Amino acid sequence: MVDIVALFQCTRPYVTATTVRQLSRISVAMMAMAGRVTMLGLARWAGKGGSYRTVQRFFSTVIPWAMLFWVFFRHHVYRADEVYLLGGDEVVITKAGTHTHGLDRFFASLYGKPVPGLAFFTLSLISIQARRSFPVRVEQVIRSDAEKAVSKAKAAAKTARSSMAKRRPGRPKGSKNTNKADVQLTPELVRIKSMVEALLHLIAACISVTYLVLDGHFGNRNALRTAQECHLYLISKLRADSALYWPYDGPHAGPGPRRKYGSKVDYTHLPEQCLKETTVEGPIQTRLYQAQLLHKEFAQPLNVVIIVKTHLRTQAQAHVLVFSSDLTLAYASLVDYYGLRFQIEFNFRDAKQYWGLEDS
Q1: How much is the pLDDT for 163?
Q2: Which helix (H) or strand (E) holds 255?
Q3: Strand pairing of 211-213 and 104-108?
Q4: Which of these, 61, 83, 84, lies nearest to 11 by C-alpha position?
């Protein structure tokens, strides 16, 4: 108990002594109790000074959690000689009822479909040396009417495309060129951008972050634009069926603009000059290819690492496309940084199993 109180002393300039004392009691109860983490359970395990009314007062207090996360990290976790990535991800918990604040339908990867519940978006500082994730900003996702309208429109467009007859090849008559650099951020990305900017402003005097690491949901030009507006490089994953093209390096045929796109990338026949590494583990052969490739939805070239896995006995293949907007990033670092993003999932697991996130 004394050790926990000592750890929380760094938060004293930002909250009252009463709040620190209440937080210390509740933290001890959370670590000691078993089963569901409820306010009644916390009151039973908190001991002297942790009555049910005290627990209620604590959870009704307005606390600057973003500042407390950062101050705690800076005092007890931060190492000046380590390099940090900024990672982001969303966690969804199922929740029944109708009166819970923020209750909505969110897509949960564990179920593979939208489920009723609550969602929280987390920004985390990931240490490359320690290979651990440290959450520093957490906000509940409250979807606005505009964000819901965008989701419904996207679902309707997808349904319409699947029901339409296959159109003729070539460009539709009357279509016009669009500026790919002129991107309208979705309400979801506007919300995430505000979180990233607030965090970068908070940590600017101590940590300089270069890369923003997000999962495949954000492997699109809108997310890339969001990272650029925050002065960060994006690291993410493309869909496995993404249409990538080699830059055209042939002769310029006649007047008009020079041809930009070359042949389409064939993931089953990649050039050997792009091969960076080959490893074999049991019957699985893994090959890593790196190249600067073009995507017709992006305004700039992408630094893409293609991870091709082959089953040597059956010759079955699968591939993953990891990319970055930093064209100078080495293939090993790019793969390693994207793999470190998964450390956030361990934070979510611990929050659900030990800290009552599923019982909120």
Answers
A1: 64
A2: none
A3: unpaired
A4: 61
